Amino acid sequence: MSRKGETITLSLSAEEKQQLEQIALDFGQTWGEDPNISKLMRAIAKGELKVCWGDEESPMTNKQRNAMKGAIALIQEGLSKLIKLI
Questions:
Q1: In this predicted model, which residue has the larger pLDDT, 58 or 42?
Q2: What pTM was computed for the model?
Q3: Are the CB atoms for 29 and 40 separated by under 8 Å?
Q4: I need a surface site. Which of 30, 38, 53, 60 has the fewest CB within 10 A?
């Protein structure tokens, strides 16, 4: 199977690789169910994921994002019911 893009080599410790794989999982950057560091890097390069430094606001994890979406859906449902009562 040929690769579609340029290739780079990263020299990482096992711990650094594990940390990047966890970040990839947290942000849904996977190949099937496996974390995909290349997909993570592409998402950052395309601006689909924002990298924050130091005391900047940290990005949301998928779990946090899904919880927020659920809360918004509940609020919308409540507002719809309230409008029907008015």
A1: 42
A2: 0.58
A3: yes
A4: 53
